[in-house]
Structures are given as C-alpha cells and as structure tokens.
Amino acid sequence: MVDLATRVYNHKWKIDPIVRSLIDTDFYKLLMCQSVFRNKRDTRVTFSLINRAKHIRLADMIDEGELREQLDHVRSLSLTRGESTWLRGNTFYGKRQMFRSDFMEWFENLRLPAYHLEKHDGQYELTFEGSWPEVMLWEIPALAILMELRSRAVLNTMGKFELKVLYARGMTKLWEKVESLRTIPDLKLADFGTRRRHGFLWQDWCVQALIEGLGDKFIGTSNCKIAMKRDIEAIGTNAHELPMVYAALAQTDEDLRRAPYDVLADWHEEHDGNLRIILPDTYGTKGFLDNAPDWLAQWTGIRIDSGDPAEGAETAIQWWKARGEDPTKKLIIFSDGLDVHKIHELSDQFRGRVKASFGWGTMLTNDFIGLTDGDALAPFSLVCKAVEANGAPTVKLSDNPNKAMGPTEEVARYKRVFGVGEQEAREVRV
Question: CA-CA 20 to 30 A from 149: which of 296, 305, 330, 376?
Fold first, then answer.
C-alpha cells in the first residue's frame, strides 16, 4: 500500500499527476458522453468553473504555473490500449459492449480541447468551449485538479512527522465511519467522491478501505480508473448537465417544458434496468413528477441530489403509488451531502418502503475536517457546469435555491414555465 505521507513529503509531483487518465473520471460522464455523441454532437457549449465558497481564494493559494501544467497534462492524455479494451469488453450494469464502436473510435482518438484561464479578485476563471462531447469531459478533471492543488498548497507547509500524523488521523476517521456503516444490515453504498477528492491516491485508499471494511455492502465506485484498477463495478447514470443543455436549446416555452423529458426519452432508447434512473430536481422535483409521462413511472428508480432527502424520497414514493407502481420494488439513490449520520437516518426511515442506495461523495474522499489548524483542508463547494449552449444561457433551479444558477431573468422564466414556487434554502456545504 502507498505511503501517502512520504509521497506527499517528497514532493515528487512528476510521478503523481493529478489526473492520470482520461478514464480518471466519473462513469456517468462516459455514459452521457455517448448519448450526447449520438444525439447532440454538433451542439456548441461553454463550461465554467464556479467556486461557491468565495472566502476560499483559490488564485491566491494555487500557483498559476502549476495549474496550467496540470491542465496541459490532461490535454496530452489519450486512452491506453488497456483502457480501451476495458471499456469495449467489460460488462457494465449486466450489459456487455455498453459503449458502441463508433463512440469508442471517436474516444480513442480524442484529445481534450483548449482551456481559457484568467484571474479575477482572488479566483480563477476557467472556461472550456467547443463541441459538447469534447468539452463535457473537462468537468471532472478540472475539479479534481483544483481540489488537489488546494490540498497540496496546505500540505506543502507541513513537516514529515506532521504529515504522518495527519494521514494516520484521516485513516482512523474514515475507518470509524466504516465500522459504523457496516452495522446497517441492508446497506448498498458506492463511492461518488471523484470530483471533490483530496487526491487520487487518497480516493484509491478510501475505496480499498470500503472493499475490506464493507464487503458486499460496498457496490462500486464512480471512478472508472479505480474501478478498472481494483476490479470492481463502475457506478453512475446521468446528471443535471443533460436537461440543462437540452433546455437551453429549446426555442419556445413549450419546448422548454418538454426538454427534461426529451432527455430521458433519448436515454430510454439506449439503456434499461438500473441505468433507468430519474434525476428529477433540475427544475424542481415535484413539478417534474407531476407532469411526467406515464412511461417514466416504470423506470427503475430516482436519484435525490438536492433539497431535503427524506422529503424528496417521500415525494417519490407518493408519485409511484399514484401511478400504480409498487415503491418497494423501486430504487432511490441518495447522493447529496451524505455522511454517516445521514446514511443511518435515511436507511432507518425508508427500510422496507423502497430499495435504498447511497452515493457517498465528498465526506468519503475529502473529510479532513478538524485535522488541521484553521481547518485549512475542510472541503468546499466547487463545481464546473455548462453555462451556455449554442449561444443560449443554461439554467438550473434545483430543489435548493442556493444551488440555482443562470441569469436572473432566465431563472425567473424557468420558474414560471416549470411552476416552481417558494423553496427552502439549505446550506451548500460541499
């Protein structure tokens, strides 16, 4: 096993590039990329970095030269033969050859497009522009790079023994969580922690701890590189990016109202089983479900990623019942801001009522809270989102208004079109 403290202390970053592979990314990005490649490949998009935690002045902490070096390294990457073979020949969600030949031929020849980087008021303005299938693959690497460079900036101030103690305490903290979680009898948990991880080596260590500590209660990781390396399941379905871009392309209010369902109609053509998971909160969960076509009620489950998770699950259960479906045969994936206490609480509340699964993210792969002076390694909310499609701005409303994004006038229009009323604001911690 890697001696993390020694690796950090020696500062041999050349052997530790932050992003090691084009598949050092979340599985859902590749699934979505194939769908976009087939259905909307000529769409032009802009992605932009958004730091919701303005008090963390990333441009003051992270050297611009180091940041450019890491971004340029990602642009040099291409699929290795082994990675291509794994994607082409492996079984994902019970299906062989999940990735089609035309998509794989395109992916094997891909180099990520150029980036644009500036500094403004202590923050980096990092944007990516180009065709949607290419640009969307920047999201996870960009976040991983900024998060790990911030970690390195803090770690660079520490001595050899301080680092040893820090990682020993971090490992102990995680293992105590594992010991608590394995008391949940019917737990199904996956690693969703790539985008805001402390670092690649730490995420890999966390996954190994879950493999040993949880056994078959740990069902896999969203990180394709680690899934391949550790021979475990790659986990993921779809994300807000799809309805945000489809909605931005809408020409009329009626087209806009239909856009979130058009996304899932395209998805329905490609995937079945546990890949048919609805993410309903982009423009408000209740309105989405109230107006959903009947065929969506037959899908396998729903992922809850904003708002009060228990309230979201109750809404889903009532929706299934109203549509004549048995909720006990449906899957709810909780994935927003989870930690041990919340996983216990939700498991207890919904046991026997639905099949519950948990995508554990930042508080798995980046919980060093309380372990450094001034909490210098505490995680924070950093995102990289599609902000424009074919010249039109994108909008996200969410079930938490603190996660909303888009121009004020467009947010108001979307709220009107989707019938979104008052929402309860919740702290966005990670």
Answer: 305
CA distance 358 to 361: 9
b/e map 58-86, b = 16+ CB within 10 Å: bbeebeeeebebbbebbeebebeeebbeb
The edge-to-edge listing of strands for the beta sheet with 382-389 is 115-120, 123-131, 44-51, 382-389, 392-393
pLDDT single digits (tens) 288-317: 999 999 999 999 999 999 889 999 999 999
How would residue 2 be classed by pLDDT, with cut points 50, 70 and 90? confident
232: tokens are: 């475990």
Identify whether the C-beta of residue 252 lies closer than 8 Å to the C-beta of residue 44: no
CA distances from 276 to 27, 125, 332, 404 (A): 15, 35, 12, 25
**What string of DSSP letters covers 173-218?**
HHHHHHHHHTTSTT--EEE--STT-S-HHHHHHHHHHHHHHHGGGE
Over residues 392-411, the pLDDT tens digits come to: 999 999 888 878 899 999 99
Give the tens place of pLDDT for each residue, 78-121. 999 999 999 999 999 999 999 999 999 999 999 999 999 999 99
- pTM for this structure? 0.95
d(Cα 371, Cα 124) in Å, to the nearest integer? 27
3-class DSSP state of 34: helix
Please say whether the beta carbons of 203 and 365 come within 8 A: yes
Query: CA-CA-CA-CA torsion for 243, 248, 254, 255, nearest 10 degrees?
Result: -70
Backbone phi, psi, residue 285, to 5°: -65, -50
Helix 200-214 vs helix 160-181: crossing angle, to nearest 10: 40
Buried b (16+ CB within 10 A) or exposed e, 3-40: ebbebbbeeebeebbbbebbbbbbbbbbbbbbbbbebb
